[in-house]
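Pasting two entries for a bug report.
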Amino acid sequence: MVAGAASAATSVVQLPEGGRAVEVVPKGVLCGPVRGGWVLSPDGRSLKPPTRAEDSARTLELKVAPDEAACATATDTVVVVATGPFPRIDSASTTFFPDDGRLELKGTGLKNVTIAWSGLPRGADAQGKALEGEDVCLEPNSPSECAVPVTPGLPTDAALSWRPAFARTGAGVTTYDANGRFLDDEYFRLRPGRTVLTRPLVQSSGVDLSKGPGYAAVTHSEAIASVDCGSARCEVTDGAVSIRNVPGVNPTVSLRLRLVPRVFFARGDALETSVAETLPVLACPLTAVDGTVLRDAEDSGLVMRLDAACAHDPRGLLWTVNGVRTRVERVVKVPEGTYVLLRTRGTDEAQVTVTATTSRVDGTVVASETAETRPVPDPRATLELPGHGSIDFVPTNRPAEVTVASNGGQGRFVLRPLGGAYTVTTRDAATFLQGEATAGGFVSLRFGYRLPTLPAELATTDLFLTSERVQRAVREASVPTNVENLVEFICADKDGHDETLTPSRPHRLSYAMRNTCRVVIHRERLTPEEGNQEITLRIDVTKSDGSSRGESHVEQRLFLRPKGEVRVIPVQGNLGQYDRILVQVSHVADESRYALSTVDRTGLPSAQWTAIVRGGMFRLYTMATIPAGLYRATQPTGQLAINFGVLSRLALLNNEGQERLLGIELGLMGLGLVPQSGDIQFPPTLAAVLGLGLRVPIGPGAAVGAQAWIAREFRGDITRRTNGDPTTDTVVPSSKWSFIFGPSISIGNVGFNL
């Protein structure tokens, strides 16, 4: 059957690569042209797929029109797909593993073959929903084998089908083989030669016959051909085996389940066609509460639930776990049943069998249950000082908040106190831990495991006790306190009264009170909750020229204990004008001592004080000056090379004691100490100079600058060279007063402030 022109807009036609031409539309024409190796027949209705399709041309969407003239306005379309070559699947050698979710194909050309499945599970854990899906054989295990994952839990009679590579499925899809024959869905149906079950077929651990027929849950009721249970009467129902008419003398029922053809049960490497199982007959349904059956937990509590219809008193029964006698610790009755807490010695087995009998003599089994054990979870605790971040030790001087998690399990861990090591308190739904004042060394935190879903007081009962795998130190917690509260910088004001200086702000001190400054350490302000503190105190005094006053330098590492005495550290040395006092206090960055935040690590608390000694407004000092070259602006003009002199300079000072750039200069200079090569001959002379100088410091006592001076020269005549003979040089009329300027280097700063 081919798709008609009326439905061409939604139809899909699939042809394998290298196949024959197939009539795609019975009437009308396909509007070309086609590409990628597709061949359109002369009548415009048939298409021949390419021998090897390119990915870009594997799928074409073509318009369908009544004739070629109507192609420009046609709206109906048909999609043609070039699938991969058809594989050859050996169904007899194909194996289906519904429990493992795997289909093992045998054949050739399996790469990119699509496997689709659908089915309604009818086992014990079926949810009533159909399971559907598909997957692709991407990388075969070998040229003739490929394992395709399917949804685990499919029934043994699930509908399996295959499609060639790149094929589509769904309504409106028509598929042809290489000879141009139409293929229906039955052609693609896959019937595995073997279906292998790997999960236990019988899921029940016992049969309850107290209220009529009992039921043994099975995983694949559709795979059971018949069932035999000896003298009892059994029949297969949906998801279970119904059992009735069991003789009262039989404590067990033996089932023998025969499987339908081509379905096998895997027991190791052997494949069996029948399954035998022996189930105990339970007078009282017994269930192990999930989350309480734990493995490798010493002295653990196991909680069982008896059905509400059971009239036996749990305390009057004999309870065993894997054949070992155990005691009943607590019984809680609720409308849905009776909960029994059994205190056991623990087990390392993968499963436990709990049995309740009437007495040692009678030995009638009242209830029995076999349950899988779960690995015991481990507690994972974190300690945090509120506002200060996580810590890895138990503090003795303040409480730490404890947050507990586990690596699995349905319960929760509760921190338990440990005498002689630490105490536990609860406040506002938070748990706090504090080590005892006399404790020391290391300790592992101890936790109780509880299951909050249990009823009544069982929810607050420790099912077992466990300790952390790691040990934590028990010691004092030192929290970095604000050093501004511990340290004060005090100086006297101009009237002699003590004044506490504020940190991080500049202060100016009276010169007369310059030697009254001291640092006060208030150890009495430390509280036991803050713990011991370790700080570094640094005092530096810098002169106005930038050099350090060594006798005033102090650098000490102080260890402060709570409630200690006050300590006073004076600023030493005879301070001068514009001396800068810098006091710095900071905590020692020691993570082994302090509880440092893991979130805000911008730095430990620190403080800094700055004070400057007042001084004069002017500075008068003497310096040696070496002008490299001066220019004489007065006639006769010229360059004066290699000059040297001593000057006195008066400069205005700023608030920091640094002189302004411009100052008044007065002194004696030796000018023109080296003869010049020009025609004007300036004799070496001594001159008194007065003028302005611009100085830029380049280091302690050194500066570069430029100056403009009026000079009174004490010299002989200035001559002009005529023919190279000094006896014939002419005297140039000149004044003893001159104006000179130029750059210079000055050394020295010997003077005082005014």
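Entry 2 (this is the one that rendered wrong in the viewer):
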Amino acid sequence: MAKQRKNLTINKDNIKKTSVVESTISATQNQEFARPINPVLNYPNIGPKGGFGANVDLTKYYGKGYDDITNRVYYTSKTLLKNTKAFTEETQHTYIASGFNNFAEYLEIYSNAIGKSVVQSDITPALIENYLLHLRASELSFTTQKNRYTFLKSLLCRMNEKGYWLAVGNINLNSDFFPKNPFPNSNKRKKGEKPLPPYEKRQVVVALKQAIKPIYQKTESLSGYELTLCLLAMAIQTGINTQPLLNMTTDALSDHPLKDNRKLLRVLKKRGNNNQIRSLRKLEQFEVIQGVKLDVAYMIEKIIQLNALVRQESNSDLVFIYNKSKYSEQGAGSKSTSLQEVSLARNITKFIKEYDLNDEDGCTMKLNVSRIRKTFINDIYELSRENLLLTAQQANHSGTSTLDHYLQAPEQAKRNLGLMGEIRVKELTCVESNVPVGHCKDTINGDKAPKNGTFCNNFLGCFRCKSFVITGDDLHKLFSFYWAVVRNRYEFGRKEWKRHLRNVLKIVDEEVVPEFVKLGELQRVETEKERARTNPHPYWQNLDMLKVIL
């Protein structure tokens, strides 16, 4: 009889270390003494890449009178981390960093006030109202207060959903627990970043050109500061947001399918998981923003080449990855890291200080990628002659309504608006009737007037009207309209332009100008015509006013 073979299968449960197994505790009981062995939350997919992600250590919250709440926050967070599709790691991390962190400070004050530890049953509408008063009494901005409260509310709702906050019972938290709209009109009070004025933008561009020039001569890997300089230059050239740039990978560049003098840059936009695609011209033709002559495609390829070894050692495909200068303190495993918003802000501060960048008031300049993006979009808006559709397309916006948060009225527009108000008041108080291109003998009963008691507003009819009069003082307005007709031919629409405006140019050149020549005013005509071309009358910066009446 054959000898039976011994079963050598190893049961993993027999070798599991019981010291690292946390026992499951009922959420209904007081968890003040159910402190986890290692209360550290790890978010591996955020924070510097090439390191170990972002960790949130809850140890500092223990022993301050609200251990039960801290434990419930910990176990809720651990449960949420099992499904990052419902709530991303960034969102979960913000629950702790912005929501619970500030609330914990108030819980410590509240625990000392009531003389006992705070537990889940103590979180009542009254406590939330008192916390709101605590926020309003702080030095935080209105928007920051609103954000802190919103993230705390979301965290408490997740605790209730996961069964770690059952004291409230089965109620609708939004309608029956939390106060309704504690921060009214917060969207109107929020002040976003302003685009860089020309003076500041010029300083940044000149400083970047000086700072980046030595990078092209380097043969060793780039530091985090040098990568920041490259990222700022890319932001100025492309107008892409911070996170898509930081998360750029080595396969972001590709050949343009139609043009040899361009490259395609593809970056991932996390919101909605949409891809942003930018078409980059080569150096000789890439002059989208004045004063900038950097070749973005070449810069990206240079970064990939110089930091290839660092990328290989860290097994990462990110473009903005580098070796930390003092990695030995954190061990060999964390030798490399990637550029993140915190390190980016620190390096930008260093850049501002090194090149002494100041605003128009002489104060230290405030610089970030958000301001650069708004500057880019406003420049596109201005260069496209205020074409909203083209600007929205270049900004990767689905519609033009989102541009309200980016576009800023230029100083010239503000001056023109004030001047137009003065002109309009002068016209209304003047005895002689004025029109936007000249004078009219009678705007109510004139040759082309409607003769029904209303004012005539048919500007184009003026050129065929017997009541129309042009004086030497009207030449600036007349030629401003003339040049507006020339500039806006394609934007106005070719058919409409031929139908309504082509004859205007002919009348001015063949009928109006010869009459002034007969009076010996040729020099004045030429002067006013050139003045109108370079500095048009505010009424005729474009043909928007004409479109209203057609």
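Dev reply: Rendering is fixed now. As a check, the viewer should reflect this: Residues 125 and 177 are 6 Å apart (CA to CA).
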